């Protein structure tokens, strides 16, 4: 064992050459750092990774908070004049709506014998499916609901 008065100058030299963290890992009485002195254990690596992760998380949260609470540019802030112009434009476009085509009722359903051209854009999904089934030879008689027998 080295006396403290002998070891302190050795430790000071290690601090000057390698830094305070290396000096903390220096064994008492040793004058030189070895590879085993500097090597980290698995627990120390895990703790260092957790510390870095926590530091990054805090930094990202701080940046997000600063961006969210930053003052908005004047042009991004809604004002009454802008609101009025948007409402006026909306009322102007909605006051003259285009009337949608009337939907066919169930009584006006297309006949099965006269299919519409499935390639035409006005053909309904039902007509296109019906035509595809006919082409594939899968058109079967429609199923009727079962009748309940009374006893």
Write a structural description:
There is one protein chain. This protein has 151 residues and is mainly α. 53% of the residues lie in helices and 0% in strands. The protein has helices at 4-18, 20-25, 35-38, 42-68, 80-95, 125-136. The protein is elongated and about 105 Å long. It starts with a helix and ends in a 15-residue tail after the last helix. The relative contact order is 0.04.
Q: What integer is the average pLDDT?
A: 77
Order of helices and strands: HHHHHH
Query: In one word, what is the shape?
Result: elongated
How many alpha or pi helices? 6
What would you call the structural class?
mainly alpha
* Oligomerization category of the chains in this entry: single chain
Ends distance? 107 Å
Using DSSP, what is the number of strands?
A: 0
Radius of gyration: 41 Å
Runs with pLDDT <50, length 5+? none
Set out the fold topology.
Layout: H1 4-18, H2 20-25, H3 35-38, H4 42-68, H5 80-95, H6 125-136
Essential attributes:
151 residues, mainly alpha, 6 helices, 53% helix, 0% strand, elongated
Give the structure's gist in a few sentences.
The chain is mostly helical and 151 residues long. Helices cover 53% and strands 0% of the residues.
